[in-house]
């Protein structure tokens, strides 16, 4: 749902005499955070199929919170780009967030198949001499060239991630003759290598977008990004695909399961 | 290493005549991003044990990039709070980032044992009637009270995360008599329940900190946070611990391994 942004003037809260102003502010902010965390989960899991959140009065009742704390909570979610206020309608869900599993190694189009079509704008491709760090991680000798591919990936036309990919030359050069705009690199790599992928080591970090990355992803300056670094190996163990991926934080949720025992 | 922030005036780059200004800007920003991604990885993995990055001229050579692109790359990492410029010294590593495994369910103190001491400032505890969403996820009837615990968690005195925790009353009330400042909830829960924890479902999102959360975590306004929502079960499957955790993005790196096959 698209809705014009409006601003709202809420009157100051009445404070119990025994509470200092600082205490009251903290209490209200703490409550807002609690409410926002529950609503975020509900929004993400489709608890409001009409796309409209319950009225403020209902949220006040449901959460046992003040109207101001509920408003602050909605403001928090608005700040995350999850909801918008719509005059005459209420608070509406905007900007879908897509689940990305942490349990199986999948390409983006494979992952999001049920959510729509992934399209890749190939921004750069070429043979480069990589920095030593990249060569080392791909198990290559210093100075050996690699194929570099940079893609802006969209889901249903909306920017989702900016991917910087390094691939050894023997697999990367055939890859460049393929349709990179409409295929996951993973699927193409398996075909070219004649064997499936095996495992990938990955790291996830939350970082603020630098101005240029933000502009490329059509996100606000400083927007939170989910930065993924992933080294993928073929089934035989050879490292073949090193990627640095900037996901728009407001469009992706990573999901996984952890186990307490070492091998339950 | 602590170092005063300085600003620097770099002269404008000389542009090849054939390149439009917009193209040149994009090229330089793209190169800076590539360089920053490699340097980020190196910083994170202790590639510069002296705490000082190579001189700009050396980075220019190593990356085959212009001096301006290298400077922009260092600026990106500075923006992430990873490095700082130190007059007379160079670019130094600041603010260590800690690895948090995505492969095993561990409490924070267990996770970070080798990195230092985790201390918990217990901000709030109490018995509350939770919103229906919370009750449902903990497998409780509507209106059943739960114990709510809010903790600001520090590593070696520095704020790392703000944790909002919901626990069923029968386990949560005994928990409140324990030393929550110096123990992980996980370890205490296992002792109280008389059985180990089993699995946890978790989601990870990158979000911008709202002003109050930022202030609580001593982070800049709008700082990128790694927001974790985690529902932990006992070994017998009962859900017993629902947490909403805001990690400072500049202090934590999540690490895991994915496999291509469904059960390799």
UniProtKB/TrEMBL annotation, chains A, B:
UniProt superkingdom = Bacteria
**Alphabetical list of InterPro entries matching this protein:** Bact_HTH_transcr_reg (IPR050679), Chorismate_lyase_/UTRA_dom_sf (IPR028978), Tscrpt_reg_HTH_GntR (IPR000524), UTRA (IPR011663), WH-like_DNA-bd_sf (IPR036388), WH_DNA-bd_sf (IPR036390)
List residues of the HTH gntR-type domain: 29-96
Q: Please provide the record's keywords in A-Z order.
A: DNA-binding, Transcription, Transcription regulation
Which SUPFAM superfamilies does the annotation name?
Answer: Chorismate lyase-like (SSF64288), Winged helix' DNA-binding domain (SSF46785)
What is the name of the protein in this document? GntR family transcriptional regulator
Q: Which organism is it from?
A: Actinomadura keratinilytica
Classification lineage? Bacteria, Bacillati, Actinomycetota, Actinomycetes, Streptosporangiales
